[in-house]
Specification:
The protein is of the alpha/beta class. It has nine helices and seven strands. The chain has a single domain (30-253), classed as Thiamin diphosphate (ThDP)-binding fold, Pyr/PP domains (Rossmann fold, 3-Layer(aba) Sandwich). The chain has a seven-stranded mixed sheet, with helices on both faces.
């Protein structure tokens, strides 16, 4: 009779994630971003001290998926709400989780002034180059020539301008201590994304000021391609327009990166 070796546990759900199915479309990388944040909270043992701020957008129900305190903000106003929470409760870890339409369009004023003031919060910015929840319209991050429901012939830069590169823009604000761009399209980049998220929370722990991690993400439903094709699309089309890298790291932070 064959003897079966005992099974080794190689995967478990982070305590900072709830045990419910998400509403995200197949192939969407929001779920990966959620898990990375949850793993960081577990590893830093900060779940009981963390308050998240959910946006309006595909991640409007993010509060259902994290096992920590959460509040819901009006569209684009997550940084303003996070500012109020952090100032009243400075010992808490406060983060916003925002998409490109929420952060770079209706919320552009809020994110810029939060960075200018150097508020000691962490922002996780999901960039999928399109409005997801509201029907696939052109976003501030939509690529030149990219077709959307509001630009069916492709984005015309002469009419609507060029994509806004938020990591670079935020890096120019004096109150910013940490601004980087990572991606979620393959294993190597996912590992780098987690390290960046950890560093962003460490920045807040040491009261070093504003930190933002931009993550290139997929939207196969609104892009009209398969989940596998969407990963390739990020690599082949988004990365050249939104180069991955570190755009601002205050000198004291360089020793923090894990």
């Amino acid at each position: 009779m064959a003897i079966t070796a005992p099974a080794n546990l190689v995967y478990s759900r982070p305590e900072s994630m709830t045990n419910i199915a998400t509403h995200y479309c197949p192939g969407c990388t929001h779920g990966i971003a959620h898990r990375l944040i949850a793993e960081v909270m577990d590893e830093m043992s900060i779940r009981e001290m963390t308050i998240g701020v959910a946006p309006v957008g595909c991640s409007v129900f993010a509060y259902n998926y994290f096992n920590c305190d959460f509040v819901e903000a009006a569209h684009g106003r997550a940084p303003a709400m996070a500012t109020g929470i952090k100032r009243v409760l400075p010992d808490r870890f406060v983060f916003t989780y925002q998409g490109d339409g929420d952060l770079a369009s209706i919320g552009m004023a809020e994110i810029m002034h939060v960075a200018a003031r150097g508020e000691n919060i962490t922002v996780i910015f999901i960039n999928n180059a399109i409005y997801g929840m509201t029907g696939g319209q052109m976003a501030p991050t939509t690529l030149p020539g990219q077709k959307t429901t509001s630009s069916p012939s492709g984005r015309d830069v002469e009419q609507t301008g060029y994509p806004i590169r938020m990591a670079e823009l935020i890096a120019n604000m004096e109150g910013t201590s940490y601004s980087v761009r990572r991606s979620l399209h393959d294993h190597k980049q996912i590992r780098k994304a987690k390290k960046a998220i950890r560093t962003a929370f460490e920045v807040q722990k040491l009261d070093l000021g504003f930190a933002m991690v931009e993550l290139l993400s997929t939207c196969p439903t609104n892009w009209g391609i398969s989940p596998q094709e969407s990963l390739q699309w990020v690599d082949e089309h988004m990365v050249p327009v939104f180069p991955l890298g570190d755009y601002k790291i205050a000198p004291i932070i360089r020793d923090l990166r894990v």
